[in-house]
Fold these 2 entries.
Entry 1:
Amino acid sequence: MWLQNGTIIKTPRTLTIDNVTYPSAVFRDTDLLATLGITPYSEVKVNQRYYWEGELTVTDGVGTYAEIDKDVDQLKEGMLSTINSQVSSIQGGIDWYWSRASKGGKAVPAAIKKYAATIYAEQVTKEAEIKCSMKLHLTLQLEKLKLVLRTRMVQ
């Protein structure tokens, strides 16, 4: 993207400057663009998971949106739903042990029982942390603490 007199140009296009028409290919020539007063432009987007985009401020060819906090309660609900989904997915991979045992097959191994207990303990901990967090920055920190149980199985 480029910037010309405060106007953002998102894609190359034909330009008319001082009664001279330049084809869209002009955007491949950085030296010519500089002489025409067209500078490179980039944007810094907000994390749309947690913020709405506010007013755009352009400084030195970089556009930055103001961050407007999203509703924390809605964020918490989404995080709780994600945690429950993750736990369900992980637990779904080992549920067959209990199904086999209930049908008279081998008992559930102790390591699997311990793993399942750890999954649920971690779920309770994360849910409590999310429910207790009162400010957005705390909620954001908690979101970064993803369940790591998928990659480590308690032996």
Note: The beta strands are 2-4, 7-9, 15-17, 20-22, 38-40, 42-44, 51-59, 62-69.
Entry 2:
Amino acid sequence: MKGKMITLMKLNYWANDHFRKAMETLSRTDLNQKTPYGTILDLVIHHFNAINTWLSRLGYESLEKNEVNYANLEWKEILTRWKETDKKLIQFVESIEDEVVLNKSISYKIPKGKFRNKIEEILFHLTHHGYYHRGQLAVLLRQYNLPPAPATDAMVFFREIQNY
């Protein structure tokens, strides 16, 4: 199972990296476009900062130790932090020495209450969370006539890694 989880995290990194490259030329005006989800920048930040939140809950060193006002950072710095966060997620899964750890549950609290989930469920959530928000970003890029979203289907990923 750990091997499959690492593959999922690498797929997430690969897909996000394609989006980072497609979006790197966006201006602040583009990023501040109002959408049903806040601004495009808000959506990007939520997308990757959720990983930092979960890494912290899992007891792993997240990229951000304190609250960061991403709106004050340059876009290039935000893209770099997003990439580093994705790397941290892969490192977390690679650091799991025993697959039994994936079945370990953790407790956490959010505004809706207290919950308990297995680590493998959390990791599945993070990959699906990524797909969900990349889908939203893809629609917004098209809607606002910004650089088109790249193809990030899992099969494209598997075809590409076969060529290495």
Note: The chain has a mean pLDDT of 91.
